[in-house]
Amino acid sequence: MVITDLDLAIRAIATGHLCAIPTETVYGLAADARNTDAVARIFVAKNRPQDHPLIVHVGNYESALDWFANLPDWGQQLAEACWPGPLTLVGQRSQLATDQVTGGQNTVAVRVPNHAVTLQLLDLLKTKGILGLVAPSANRFGHVSPTTANHVETDLGNYLKLHGDLILDGGACEIGIESTIVLALDDTPVILRPGAISADVIEAITGLAVQQNPSGGPRVSGALASHYAPRAKVYVVSNLTDQNFAQGSGFIALSSIQTPVGLLRLAEPDTSEAFASQLYQAFRHGDVLGVSNVYLVLPGESGIGLAIADRVHKAAHPDKERLS
Ligand code: TXA
Ligand code: MG
Description:
Blueprint: E1 2-3, H1 6-14, E2 19-21, E3 28-32, H2 36-46, E4 55-57, H3 61-65, E5 68-70, H4 73-82, E6 87-93, H5 99-102, E7 107-111, H6 116-127, E8 133-134, H7 149-162, E9 166-168, E10 180-183, E11 190-193, H8 199-206, E12 211-212, E13 233-236, E14 250-252, E15 264-267, H9 272-289, E16 293-296, H10 305-315
Parallel strand pairs: 1-9, 2-9, 4-7, 6-10, 11-12, 13-16, 14-15, 14-16
Antiparallel strand pairs: 2-3, 3-8, 4-8, 5-6, 6-7, 10-11
Bound molecules: threonylcarbamoyladenylate and magnesium ion.
């Protein structure tokens, strides 16, 4: 059931139910991070592999520190500069973090989401002794992340309804793609998943060189090929002339780029930021319209552009041939 009443959300979570929550990035499917049965049901609801670690969501920086055994100085600087905001820090875990939450790793991922309703929820839950909510994106595993309460209902509504779980509606997500995940273990910030907070921003705040796209690092579920995928085949195109587009296909590009004849425009954002916030909605819209193919022109790779390219390349399935 979709609700807007915080008291209902609190009661649901405190009694071991799941509740989808709004954040500035995407909607998360939340449970009390210390309730083993509730956390177990998140994996069932999403059809997510058990060993994929979850992000703990807390209401402020001080609460985040309880989940870490320690954090390098630069990690603290970054947290204070970016939280609440689209940053997840992965650090040495404290005894609060269970194997169930971390996927058995000795690190834990934590973030303070920048959404007024959810921040209020997290603060009120803390007064009831609930120290954090685990919340993976509230989509079926491998599907496009949800950016509205309605998207959550489409993906998980049947399961949630059957179990008395709730969806807290906090409007459309402003940023629209998942948080930047930064590994904070030693002297080098390592970006495990790009997001709205770019390497440049992290370098400016910490004064340290940032490592990107590590190989062999800790498990990041979005790192699997064919993640974030709509039903339609996604093709990244860079040159709109001389292309044989399948008529009736979807098209996503900045508003400065004209729609090729015969294609259905799914989004025409003015900026890279707007591109990010409309991307998943546009993929879902294409699926609702039943298009078989979506052609997409990436915005530049600066700022959030890199995170957009990351998600789009994962949506473009390996067996979906890439046009140049
Ligand atoms: O913006 C977001 O981060 C959203 C909203 C709901 O907060 N959440 C989200 O959760 O994207 P999820 O579960 O879809 O992705 C969490 C990512 C996964 O890629 C997971 O592997 C990674 O965080 N992660 C969690 N704990 C980790 C750890 N200890 N080490 C490395 N990666 C970790
Ligand atoms: Mg996800």
